[in-house]
Every structure is written in structure tokens, then in C-alpha cells.
């Protein structure tokens, strides 16, 4: 294997020496914030607890195959029917998975908003607010049968 050629940079070595400690500290801080050692079951149980506390009337949840019996049993204790949606192992390539299309469609609708196509927001609450605004816009558009111009139609 040949040695990788250095990428020509606009930053001189002196400038890089000033920037590098800050960049390294920023990268380390991002790595420190990532949750480690949490299984999907632990995250699923916590998510079910949070959802039940916020929306006590919820009765059904669909999860993928990464969630095992502990999540299903915990959901049953909370009164939430948790159904594991499996792919058909006999089919190779793309296949429609039950209820997955609802999530993909919803994410597609949200991504029509320019501000949500990239992670521009500093605070998670700002992103959450933008998702609420996008959802409200989508709902009102569906109720009134009007179209709202998006940034995609402005070229």
C-alpha cells in the first residue's frame, strides 16, 4: 500500500499549532458526551418509561429486532404492547418492513424544511422546536389542502 499524500491546506503550520489544541479538546468533549455501554434494551426501557410519563394513553409500540424480551416485558408492565418487527430472512435486498414506512415518511416530511436538513442548531431544544414547527406546518397543510412553498421550489 502506498503512503497517503498530505492534503494541501490553506492553514500554515503556525496557525495549525494555535488551532490544534482547541480542536482536539472539542473532539474529546464530543466523544465524552456519547453514551457508551448502553444496550438497546436499556435505552428501550428508558424510552418506554419516558413515553409513558409524557403520554400515558399510549398503548402500542413497534421496535426492530435489536430490542429483546426485556423491553417487551417492561412494556407489558407499563401497559404498552411492544411488537418486534422482523425482516423476512428469505428475501435479500430491499423489502418493506411493517410500520417502518410511517417513520420514513415522517422524517421525509420534516426534512423538507431547510433548517432541519442539516444540524445547524446549537441546542437540542432549538431542533425540537423546529421539528414542532415543521409538524404543525405539515398538519395544517393537510387539513386545508393548501401547499406551502418550501426552499426546494425556490430556484
Tell me what you see in this structure.
The chain has 155 residues and is mainly alpha-helical. Strand 1, helix 3 and strand 2 form a beta-alpha-beta unit. The protein contains 5 helices and 2 strands; from the N terminus they run ααβαβαα. Helix 2 runs parallel beside helix 3. It has a two-stranded parallel ribbon with strand order 1-2. Among the domains are: 50 residues, 3-Layer(aba) Sandwich (Alpha-D-Glucose-1,6-Bisphosphate, Chain A, domain 3); 57 residues, no CATH class. 4% of the residues are buried. The mean pLDDT is 79. It comes from Nonomuraea deserti. Pfam families: DDE_Tnp_1_2. This is Transposase DDE domain-containing protein.
What are the secondary-structure elements, in order, as H or E?
A: HHEHEHH
Total DSSP E strands: 2
Q: Give the low-pLDDT segments.
A: none
Question: Strand order, biggest sheet?
Answer: 1-2
General form: extended
Name the beta content range: 5-15%
Domain Transposase DDE: 67-134
Protein name: Transposase DDE domain-containing protein
Organism: Nonomuraea deserti
InterPro entries: Tnp_DDE_dom
Amino acid at each position: 500500500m502506498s503512503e497517503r499524500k498530505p492534503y494541501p491546506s490553506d492553514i500554515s503550520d503556525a496557525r495549525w499549532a494555535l488551532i490544534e489544541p482547541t480542536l482536539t479538546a472539542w473532539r474529546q468533549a464530543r466523544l465524552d458526551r456519547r453514551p457508551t455501554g448502553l444496550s438497546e434494551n436499556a435505552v428501550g426501557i428508558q424510552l418506554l418509561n419516558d413515553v409513558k410519563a409524557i403520554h400515558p394513553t399510549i398503548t402500542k409500540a413497534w421496535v426492530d429486532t435489536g430490542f429483546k424480551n426485556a423491553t417487551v416485558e417492561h412494556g407489558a408492565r407499563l401497559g404498552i404492547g411492544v411488537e418486534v418487527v422482523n425482516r423476512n430472512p428469505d428475501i435479500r435486498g430491499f423489502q418493506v418492513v411493517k410500520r417502518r414506512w410511517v417513520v420514513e415518511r415522517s422524517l421525509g416530511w420534516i426534512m423538507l424544511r431547510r433548517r432541519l436538513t442539516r444540524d445547524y442548531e446549537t441546542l437540542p431544544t432549538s431542533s425540537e422546536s423546529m421539528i414542532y414547527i415543521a409538524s404543525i406546518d405539515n398538519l395544517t397543510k393537510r387539513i386545508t389542502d393548501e401547499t406551502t412553498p418550501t426552499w426546494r421550489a425556490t430556484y
